[in-house]
Structures are given as structure tokens and as C-alpha cells.
């Protein structure tokens, strides 16, 4: 949303480069976006109107450290985040800051980015700096948001910046390895230096679909669905929340493919030392979850196919009865959220008992028709919020936060501005980027006012 891609000395990021290389939809770029860099007062005023008690935003590493390193620190960049944070706090809105939401400084990419070890120390120093500057007011930190997408789409399929297809899904395992170490180092910096004086929480926001066995009576499908979850959520969650290491399911499967597919080498899972495992285990003060959709999963694609489906030996598809959205990957299955929350509670939070924060849920509408009439978003959100409520009241899951993705329409990565996730519409044709509430904004404001209980009533009428 920030835009101002080169203002006040900001460094270039991999998404700036991606846009300038015409790799996003219709050659869209992130140059101006919603111009939120210049609209702090307007945006915070609109957030007050919605009635939210938190606002989750990301800090752009290259706005704070243009080269990625502390020596390049930009006072203007720091000032922008200070102004935003102060405006939120003055409005009684809790700032929730994400340190990394995919926009690596290009200068660090030029050194190899997440594939190289140097990134761990660089990220740790950037995190340390942010805690020291903003932590007196920011008490909630996500180190990473949806890191699976960084490894998978950025360094695997190449659909996202930096757009590298690295040896058919070999180096993406190294990328996750370095992200896990970076996350852990940032958590330890906070734990050692800032937790005492600042009293906040540091965690990670992991994205995952829910995976249902195609045929629940077939053990192969049940195992395939489990592998799907292990390759998406477990790849990150198992080391952080269970034992500092990758799951046995992941290790066994990757070893099997490595043996079966000698020559085409579909994957190599790096290993952690005992010291690294101890350093990673338990490094999250909450379980952040970004969740948008579900899949049916069956076994198997077989053979030596590169990519997660091939390495994981599963086939993912959707049920034609699930409502589709403007996005080719999001279908609506609200009950999937409840299933996933119960799965997380039972699998990851039995010994490491922390609350779950839903750090992202939402869907895109198309950029056509009446942009303010988004009844499909109201249906989607009412369904998902209601299932989160059932998880709390009926399943005893400790869900403490729900975050809608997103406050306003913005640059949606590969899809540019063609997919609209916002509660607020943004007119990108108008240079002043006016924002207008959609019907879903009024709906969501009402939910907040009634603390979600209206949902129960809506679903009784429409569903049960
Ligand atoms: C995107 O840029 C390329 C290269 O300049 C050009 O050939 C193409 O027509 C552009 N596409 C659109 C939709 O503007
Ligand atoms: C909004 O769109 C829906 C579905 O396209 C339509 O049924 C409804 O009448 C529209 N509502 C308004 C207020 O325009």
C-alpha cells in the first residue's frame, strides 16, 4: 500500500524490480500503490471509522535500511513508521508490525538473498533495530508473514519476486532453512534485550490451506492430505513449535524421492545442528495463521515430477460446489478454518501452549461491476468468522485475534491491482487514490461493534 517506492532515499526492493521488469499483471508496478506513505492521517481516520482495535502493517526493510544494512539507515524511513505508529496509538488502535512481508532489499537479493547464510545476521540486525526504535509502542511483532510463499513462489515456481526457478525446487529448501534461522535469531534478540523493558510478543504468521482427504475412507488419501499439510504448514511449524527440526514425514518423503529419483534430484532437505535445533524450538509467543482456502487431496502424482506436488506425492484439487472467488487459488470453505484450528491445537500447541492469532483471512473480488457491492466478501467473512467463533466456543481453541486481509485494495503481488482484497475500495485511476468503504466495511464495523456475536445470528438464518 505504501507506494513512494523511491521517496526519501528508500532502497529498491525485489518487488519494485519485479514490477519494473513487467512481471506483474498488465505491467502493474508498486511505484505509487495506495500512496499510504503520504496518507497516514486519512488511513488512520478510516481505521477509526471501522472500529478496529488492531492494525497490522509491514515495515519495508529497504525503507529503514535502503541497502539492507544498518549503515544505510534512513531517518525519513524511520520517521514514517514513527508517524504511523503514533497516529495509531493516539487513536487507541494497537499497532501490529510485520518485519518481513516479502519485500527484500534488492541489494540483498544481489548477494543471493534468502539462499545465502549472510541473510540470517542481516535480518537479525534489522529486527534488533526495529525493536529498539518502535518497540516502546509496538507490542505485537510478526517476524515473517507467509514465509511458505517466499520459498515456494519466490524461489520455487518463480511466480513471485525474485522470480527465480532454482534447479527445480532444490534451493527453496535452503531458503526456508535460512528463514527459520532468521526468525529464531530475531525472537532471541527480543527475548534477550527487549522483552523485559518492552513486554511485547514476537511470533510468526504462517500461511496454510486446510487439506481434506479426497476419499476419507482411503488411507492413501488420508496420508496424502497429511503430507500436504506437512509440506505447507509443518515445514515451518514443526521446527518452531515442536522440536526445532523438520518432521519425520517431511524427512522420510524427501529421502524417498531423492532415492527414487536419482539424477533428477527433486529436493534436498538441509539439516540443523543440535545447537540450531535448540535455538529454533519454542521461538514464537503466539501461533500466527494466515488462512484463505482449502483443498481436497489424493495420492499420488507418482514419478519424478519437480515441485511440491511431485515431491510430496499428492494431487490437490477443489470440490466444484465450493464457491469460487476472483482468485484462481481461493475457494471458500469456512469449515476448513475450524478444522485447521483444531489440527493446530492438537498438533502444535500441546506442549508449546500459546494463543492462536488469525493474522490474515479474506478474499478478492474482481475489478469490475459495482466496486462497492461486495456481497461475496460478506458471505465469505461471515462464514469464516463464525467458524473461528465455533472453534473457540465448541472446540476450546484459544483464538485471540482475527485479522481481515485487507483494510484496503492494494498491490497483490503477481496479480498487481487486478485482485481486490480490501474492505475499502481504492481508485487507482485517480492520482489522489481516494478510498471508499465497500458494503463489507459496514458489515465488518458492525461485527466489531457487536464483538462477533451478530455472526451467529446470520448463520442461523442462512445455514442451519
Ligand atoms: C508490458 O510491457 C511489455 C514490454 O515493454 C510490452 O510488450 C507489453 O505490451 C506490455 N503489456 C501491457 C499490458 O501493457
Ligand atoms: C450486489 O450484487 C449482487 C450480486 O451480484 C446482487 O444480487 C445485488 O442486487 C447487488 N446489490 C446492490 C445493492 O447493488
Automatic annotation (TrEMBL):
One of its GO terms (molecular function) is hydrolase activity, hydrolyzing O-glycosyl compounds. The keyword Hydrolase applies. Coiled coil: none annotated. Pfam families: Glyco_hydro_1. One of its GO terms (biological process) is carbohydrate metabolic process. InterPro entries: GH, Glyco_hydro_1. Keywords: Glycoprotein, Glycosidase, Hydrolase. The keyword 4Fe-4S does not apply. Homodimer. Belongs to the glycosyl hydrolase 1 family. This is Lactase.
